């Protein structure tokens, strides 16, 4: 049985180029943009994008993909890069009943610490802030301020590969 891979945000053009290679090897792949994604995003921008709206986007995609007749729902893996890897692991942890494992490419587990270092007081988080050539919303920054990824990482009971 070949694995099915839901490929999430991160890696820019690399993500789109990797899907055909996986498909040639018999894997079902699905690449998507988070609503309000990053510099390589082709989706519509959402000013209220947060870590948790990205989690919801990926959960919706994973559940829909798992219901397709050509997908082995017992063999679903998620893959993400950078912040997408962080979202991937969070979704895998919350949906361990359908996610068999995940691959995390250069995961960004530091947003919690980075936001707290930049704004020690949550009430001082601005409505918008430039990060890596784009403006992210205060909603996104507050979601990262509130969610310590390291508290939740150990809860996923399946295999995780990192690169």
Automatic annotation (TrEMBL):
User: For the Serine aminopeptidase S33 domain, which residue ranges apply?
Assistant: 23-115
Give the matching Gene3D superfamilies: alpha/beta hydrolase
Which Pfam families does this entry report, sorted A to Z? Hydrolase_4
Q: What name does this protein carry?
A: Prolyl oligopeptidase family serine peptidase
Q: Which organism is it from?
A: Parafannyhessea umbonata
């Amino acid at each position: 049985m070949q694995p099915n891979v839901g490929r999430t945000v991160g890696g820019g053009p690399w993500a789109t180029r990797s899907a055909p290679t996986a498909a040639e090897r018999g894997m079902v792949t699905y690449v998507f943009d988070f609503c309000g994604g990053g510099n390589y995003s082709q989706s519509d921008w959402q000013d209220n994008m947060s870590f948790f709206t990205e989690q919801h986007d990926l959960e919706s995609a994973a559940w829909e993909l798992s219901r397709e007749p050509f997908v082995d729902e017992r063999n679903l893996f998620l893959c993400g890069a950078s912040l997408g890897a962080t979202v991937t692991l969070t979704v895998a942890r919350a949906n361990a009943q359908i996610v068999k494992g995940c691959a995390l490419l250069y995961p960004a587990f530091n947003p919690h610490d980075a936001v707290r270092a930049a704004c020690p007081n949550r009430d001082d988080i601005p409505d918008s802030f430039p990060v890596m050539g784009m403006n992210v919303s205060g909603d996104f920054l507050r979601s990262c301020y509130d969610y310590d990824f390291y508290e939740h990482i150990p809860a996923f009971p399946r295999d995780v590969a990192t690169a």
